[in-house]
C-alpha cells in the first residue's frame, strides 16, 4: 500500500510499480481524484487555510487580500520552502488563485508573496506549532487539517479559516504496490479505508475524506467531527493536472528566490 | 660509507657504489636490482602512512566529485547533454552564484580581519596561558556551532519578534521599521560571523604565536615603529597563513546550507539552497542533474579560489625562499 500523491507519479511509473484495484465504493470517489484504471485513488486531504492565534491577532483575517493589511506586520508565514515542501508550494498556488492566476499560471502567487514581503508582513521562517506558540508567526498559511492536528493541540486560541478568495485543495492518494508481499491483505486494508468506518476515522483526525459528500448525503457521516471542520467553500474543487503541476513547479523554482533577493 | 648498496643509495645522484669501478653500463645486474627494490620498499614504507588518508580522500572527495561532474552532463536517460550546465549558468542560478560568491567573500574577509585582531589580542593579553586556553576552547565550540540551532538563536534574538528587537521597540526604536531585517543577505552575513570569527581565531593563533618576540625587539632596535614592524616583518610573515585562513573561511561560507535555509527558506538566491531544492523535498523531481551542474559550478568556484590563493601565496612567501 503506497500513500502518495497520484498526480506526482508519471504514467509510466504508475504502470510499472502499481497494481490496479477498485474498492467497493469506487463510484463515490470523484472522477478527477482517481486513475481511470484503478492504479491510484485519493483518500484524504484538505484545503489551504489561514490559521491564526486569536489571542494575538485582534482583527481576524479572512482572505489572502486581508493578509496584506498593515496590522499583520511580521506575522504571516508558510510551512517551509515552496521549492522543497509541497505544503508551502500549495500555499503559493492558492495565493495565485486569489490574485488573478489559475491552475495554469502560478506567477501571481509568487508576486503576491513578494508584495507580502515588501509591506513587511511576511516572515520567511518555517512555521510550526512552536513558532506560533512563541508568537513569532501568529498567522500561518497551511493545510487546514495540519493546522488543526499539529498546531491546535498546543495553541488553544487557534482559529482556522479557509480564505474567501481562493479555494485550493489537494488530497493524498492510495495505491497498491505491484510487488506487495501480501496483496490480498493490501486490498482488504483499502476496503477498510474506504468503508464508512474508515472514512469517518479520517474525519475524526480533522481531515476531509474523499467520499465526504457521499457520507453526508447518506447520513452516515460522523456529525460531531464533521461540524468541527472549518466550513468548506461552496462549489466543487478542481485539481491541477500533472502537466499544470510540473509547469507551476518550474515557475516557483525559477522565481521564489526573487521574493526577497 | 663503504662500497655497499646501502651506502650507494644514500648518496644522491650516485647510484653506483663508490667502490665499484666501471659501474653503470657494464655493471653486474645484481647490485642495481637490489637498489631498485630497496628504493621501492623505502618509498612504500613512506607512503604507508598516507594510504589511509589517500583512500579516504579518494572515496569521499574524488569519487563524488567525478560522479557530480559526469552527472552534470547527463540527462535523465544517461545521454550527454549541455542543457543542465546551460541552465545552471543562466538566469536565477547565475544570480545565485553571484550572490553566493558575494556572501562568501564578505563572510571570509570581514571575519578574517576581525578574527586576526581578536587572535592578536589573545596572544598579547596579560592573562597568559589560561586566557589562551579558554579562548581556544570557546573558539572551538563556536566555530562548529552552525545550522538550524544557530539560525534559531538569531531569530530568537534579533528576529522580527526576538528579545532584542522587542526590547528596542519598547525603548521606542523598532529596527524592523527602519529597514533592518534578519531575513536578508545582510542577516545571513551577520549570522555567519558567529562561527567564522572563532574559526579564524582558531586557525590564525598558531601563526601569530610563531611571530617571535625577538623579531619585534630586533626591529625596534633598528628604529622601527609599530607600523614599520608590521609592514616589513610581521605582515609578510603572516600573509601566507592569513590568505590560507581566508580561503578556508570562503569555502566554509560557500558550502553552508542549513543555516541560510532555516533563516530564509529559499527567498534569497544562494547556490547551496538551490541545489537543495533539486535534491531535497517533494516538489521538484527528476531534475537532479541540474543540481549536479550547480554542484559542478561550486567545485569550479573553489578551484578558481584555490588558484588565486596559490598565486597570492607564491608572491607572499617569495622572501621565504
In short:
The complex is a heterodimer of chains A (261) and B (321). Chain A has 261 residues and is an alpha+beta fold. In chain A, 35% of the residues lie in helices and 14% in strands.
Describe this structure in words.
The complex is a heterodimer of chains A (261) and B (321). By secondary structure, chain A is an alpha+beta fold. Chain A has two domains: 6-45 and 169-227, D-Maltodextrin-Binding Protein, domain 2; 47-166 and 238-258, Periplasmic binding protein-like II (D-Maltodextrin-Binding Protein, domain 2). Chain A contains ten helices and eight strands. Chain A has helices at 11-17, 86-98, 107-118, 129-133, 144-151, 183-193, 196-204, 212-218, 223-228, 242-255; strands at residues 18-19, 41-53, 76-78, 139-143, 158-161, 169-174, 176-177, 208-209. In chain A, strands 2, 3, 4, 5, 6 and 8 form a six-stranded mixed beta sheet that branches. A two-stranded antiparallel ribbon of chain A has the order 1-7. In chain A, helix 2 (86-98) packs across helix 3 (107-118). With 321 residues, chain B is mainly alpha-helical. Helix content of chain B is 72%, strand content 0%. Chain B has 14 helices and no strands. In chain B, 28% of the residues are buried. Chain A binds chain B through residues 5, 8, 73-74, 80-86, 88-89, 117, 120, 123-126, 134-136, 249, 252-261, and chain B through 91-92, 95-96, 99, 155-156, 159-161, 176, 183-185, 261-270, 273-274, 276-277, 280-285.
Amino acid at each position: 500500500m503506497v500513500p502518495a500523491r497520484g498526480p506526482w507519479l508519471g504514467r509510466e511509473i504508475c504502470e510499472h510499480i502499481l497494481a490496479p484495484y477498485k474498492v467497493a465504493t469506487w463510484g463515490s470517489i470523484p472522477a478527477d481524484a482517481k486513475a481511470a484504471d484503478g492504479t491510484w485513488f485519493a483518500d484524504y486531504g484538505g484545503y489551504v487555510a489561514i490559521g491564526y492565534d486569536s489571542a494575538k491577532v485582534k482583527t481576524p483575517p479572512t482572505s489572502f487580500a486581508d493578509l496584506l493589511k498593515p496590522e499583520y506586520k511580521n506575522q504571516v508565514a508558510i510551512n517551509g520552502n515552496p521549492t522543497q515542501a509541497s505544503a508551502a508550494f500549495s500555499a503559493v498556488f492558492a495565493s495565485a488563485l486569489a490574485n488573478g492566476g489559475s491552475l495554469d499560471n502560478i506567477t501571481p502567487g509568487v508576486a503576491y508573496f513578494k508584495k507580502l514581503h515588501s509591506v513587511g508582513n511576511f516572515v520567511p521562517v518555517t512555521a510550526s506549532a512552536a513558532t506560533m506558540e512563541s508568537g513569532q508567526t501568529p498567522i500561518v498559511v497551511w493545510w487546514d487539517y495540519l493546522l488543526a492536528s499539529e498546531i491546535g493541540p498546543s495553541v488553544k486560541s487557534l482559529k482556522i479559516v479557509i480564505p474567501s478568495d481562493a479555494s485550493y485543495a489537494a488530497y493524498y492518494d492510495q495505491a497498491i504496490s505491484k510487488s506487495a508481499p501480501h496483496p490480498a491483505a493490501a486490498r482488504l486494508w483499502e476496503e477498510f479505508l474506504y468503508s464508512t468506518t474508515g472514512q469517518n476515522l479520517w474525519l475524526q483526525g480533522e481531515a476531509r475524506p474523499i467520499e465526504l459528500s457521499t457520507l453526508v448525503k447518506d447520513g452516515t457521516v460522523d456529525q460531531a467531527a464533521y461540524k468541527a471542520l472549518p466550513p468548506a467553500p461552496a462549489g466543487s474543487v478542481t485539481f491541477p493536472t500533472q502537466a499544470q503541476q510540473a509547469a507551476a513547479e518550474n515557475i516557483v523554482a525559477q522565481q521564489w528566490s526573487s521574493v526577497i533577493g | 660509507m663503504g662500497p655497499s648498496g646501502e651506502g650507494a643509495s644514500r648518496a644522491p645522484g650516485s647510484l653506483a657504489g663508490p667502490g665499484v669501478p666501471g659501474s653503470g653500463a657494464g655493471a653486474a645486474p645484481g647490485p642495481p636490482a637490489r637498489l631498485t627494490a630497496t628504493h621501492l620498499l623505502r618509498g612504500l614504507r613512506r607512503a604507508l602512512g598516507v594510504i589511509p588518508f589517500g583512500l579516504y580522500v579518494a572515496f569521499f572527495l574524488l569519487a563524488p566529485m567525478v560522479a557530480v561532474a559526469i552527472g552534470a552532463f547527463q540527462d535523465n536517460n544517461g545521454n550527454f547533454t549541455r542543457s543542465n550546465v546551460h541552465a545552471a549558468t543562466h538566469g536565477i542560478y547565475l544570480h545565485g552564484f553571484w550572490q553566493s560568491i558575494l556572501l562568501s567573500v564578505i563572510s571570509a574577509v570581514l571575519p578574517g580581519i576581525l578574527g586576526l585582531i581578536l587572535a592578536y589580542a589573545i596572544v598579547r593579553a596579560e592573562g597568559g596561558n589560561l586566557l589562551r586556553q579558554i579562548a581556544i576552547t570557546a573558539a572551538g565550540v563556536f566555530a562548529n556551532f552552525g545550522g538550524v540551532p544557530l539560525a534559531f538563536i538569531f531569530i530568537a534574538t534579533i528576529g522580527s519578534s526576538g528579545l532584542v528587537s522587542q526590547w528596542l521597540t519598547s525603548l521606542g526604536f523598532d529596527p524592523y521599521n527602519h529597514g533592518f531585517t534578519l531575513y536578508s543577505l545582510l542577516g545571513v552575513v551577520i549570522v555567519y560571523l558567529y562561527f567564522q570569527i572563532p574559526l579564524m581565531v582558531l586557525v590564525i593563533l598558531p601563526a601569530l604565536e610563531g611571530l617571535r618576540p625577538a623579531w619585534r625587539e630586533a626591529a625596534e632596535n633598528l628604529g622601527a615603529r609599530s607600523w614599520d614592524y608590521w609592514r616589513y616583518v610581521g605582515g609578510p610573515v603572516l600573509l601566507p597563513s592569513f590568505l590560507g585562513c581566508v580561503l578556508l573561511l570562503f569555502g566554509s561560507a560557500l558550502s553552508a546550507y542549513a543555516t541560510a535555509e532555516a533563516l530564509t527558506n529559499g527567498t534569497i538566491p544562494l547556490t547551496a539552497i538551490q541545489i537543495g531544492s533539486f535534491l531535497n523535498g517533494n516538489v521538484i523531481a527528476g531534475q537532479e542533474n541540474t543540481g549536479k551542474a550547480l554542484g559542478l559550478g561550486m567545485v569550479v568556484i573553489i578551484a578558481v579560489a584555490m588558484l588565486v590563493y596559490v598565486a597570492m601565496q607564491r608572491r607572499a612567501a617569495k622572501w621565504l625562499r
